[in-house]
Amino acid sequence: MKLLCVSQTPSAETVRHGSSSRRHAPGFIRARDGFTLIEVLAVLGLIALLFAMILPAVQSAREAARRTRCLNNLRELGLALGSYHEALGSLPPGRMFMIDPIIEYGLPDKSYCTQILPFLDQQPVYAAINQSLSIYRVANSTVYSMLVRSLVCPDDVHSRAPRPFYLSYGSGSWPDPSPVVGSSLIIARTSYGGCEGSRFGTSLGPASHPPASNGCLGFTSPVRFSSITDGLSTTMLVMEKATSPLRARADLDSHEYFDSGVWFIGDVTQTLATAWYPPNAFKLVPPGQENVWAASGSSLHPGGLNILMADGSARFVKETISTWRFSPTLGGPIDPASSGGVWQALATRNGGELIDSY
Question: Alpha helices, DSSP H only, in 89-195?
């Protein structure tokens, strides 16, 4: 008997499904490869969880970068103010006084920002200002919308681009001749206010407290570094003063007072600030406390604001810094006759306060 060896050729179905020689039983339907709905939901949930964990870290890193850029802006201002002092023998006044027969007498005129432009590498902007005329004259209106980047904090959204400044009354000074009431001018802002001290240097302060500018960039004669007897490293030159918190208020009541931060006007509601109020005081009082909103140091950095010291250093100050007791209802300190806290001590140039740490 001969054994016959027969070789079987794999069927097309066997070849199609790989090396396996197992045949499917009749009526068997092969399941398609893929994910179940539960698996898809689990993956999506895991992605959402990872995103929720990473997002705060990304936002925190971005905020840290913006705060660092703000500190660098202040250091640049410090270099400019120091260079101005070296060239002219004193710091610039916080407010330039002008006697112009066309412009209403007594209005705050050019700010300290306009005087340090050449030291901020902004000579063309400085050259565009006619220093012999009031800043409100038409001849100087060309600089109104010029944005100086080093004067703007990246967190202060409403200062990052020129925007309308609404006119609610005709004073004959915006600019001459005054535009129609209710119209607007496109004007650039600044996020920083020169420190005029722990008190008000103008009549904007309470009637019970006479004006007294005891800071470095106020309404007094130009200050020399030698007259800062409290020490350059413990005396504040500039503090943040964000315009964004006031923007919502300006939309409710179209009045210049709420639309602050105009970079070329030397006034406490524009380019100057006071430590009469605690930092970020706008968080403590309701709308309606105009002085508090417009004249205090403020920022949109979480928990505090950046300041520039007279020695050129810049640092972050927490909004919980020691200050005198503040009344949100009254919109001012409860006992202004007291020496105040560390915040007030940083704002004075010759108060004789001792500052350990803050």
Answer: 112-115, 123-127
How far is residue 138 CA from its own chain's centroid?
29
Q: Give domain limits for the chain.
A: 54-347
Q: 3-class SS at 296?
A: strand
Which pTM was predicted?
Answer: 0.78
The model's pLDDT over 274-291, given as tens digits with 9 standing for 90+, comes to: 999 999 998 888 777 777
pLDDT tens-place string over residues 312-335: 999 999 999 999 888 888 888 888
DSSP-assigned letter for residue 95: B
Q: How far apart are CA 182 and CA 215, in angstroms?
A: 36
Which amino acid would we find at residue 224? R
Opening angle at CA 125, ends 124 and 127, nearest 5: 65
Other CB atoms within a 10 A radius of the CB of residue 300 amount to: 21
Q: Any idea which residue has 């006031």 for tokens?
A: 246
Task: Give the separation between CA 271 and CA 17, rounded to whole angstroms.
Answer: 79
Three-state secondary structure along 30-92?
CCCCCCCHHHHHHHHHHHHHHHHHHHHHHHHHHHHHHHHHHHHHHHHHHHHHHHHHHHHCCCC
The encoded tokens of residue 142 equal 């060309």
